[in-house]
Amino acid sequence: MTSNTGLIELVVAVHGLNGDPFKTWTTEGSEKMWLKDLDLLPSNLKNSRILTYGYNANVMAMFGKTLSDRILQHAHTLVAQLVADREAMAYSAGRTSKSIQHLHSIYVSTFGILFLGTPHDGGNKAKLASTGRRMIGALVPSKIVDTEGQLLDALQQGSEVLQEITDVFVPLMKNFHIFFFWEQEKTNMGVTQDYVVEESSAAPILDNTERAGLPGDHRSMCKFESRTSPGYKLIVAALMRYSILRRWKHAVDMLNSKRSQEADELLR
Description:
Layout: E1 9-14, H1 41-44, E2 48-53, H2 59-62, H3 67-92, H4 99-109, E3 112-116, H5 125-139, H6 142-145, H7 150-169, E4 177-183, E5 187-188, E6 193-194, H8 199-202, E7 209-214, H9 232-241, H10 245-267
Parallel strand pairs: 1-2, 3-4, 4-7
Antiparallel strand pairs: 5-6
């Protein structure tokens, strides 16, 4: 649906390691996918389009010497798909747009970011590697983990790349509204139970950011069966606060003003 400004809010859900664009957000048994169930998020964000992004997040495919290239490839693909989606919407609405507007729109639309159980151990490779080992223990079959230590070697190499990415992202956070969420329950890892991503890593204490715990383990913290499910209202409230419409309108007005000034200068 479009708002009275003619603009569309977009929510993009990106899964994590060994995740899936649909199963990650779907409850087991009842098969409730809160991102698309008409009684859940769509009813709260009526002026929004809600998308999921999928990519090959297999552990063996992600970690190792090529991790940096793979993350960059996924990032480029995500941006390209968002641009293509926006172009398709503009075309279907009979609008004429310039390519610079489409590229600029991705930054403008990225107004708020919610991190659910995402590790942020910048500057500490040992902690990143430790978090990675717990993620592997929780998400990867033991027969893969035991493959001659290859995965753990790749994890050590990957932790260096993740550290660099985290360090680069920190100074950029001031450009967005950031909300960190951590898991409040331990995940069953077979032999033991533990937090996959600890609170200090999932929700670092940084200026001008928000943080809160979600009642669930690493697997269930992003799944909600109903509006009364613990944590659901917290997520929805954040999404509703981070509406992009005001920022979009401001950016469009600024771009139109700039073009008007350029046109005036050409006519002089």
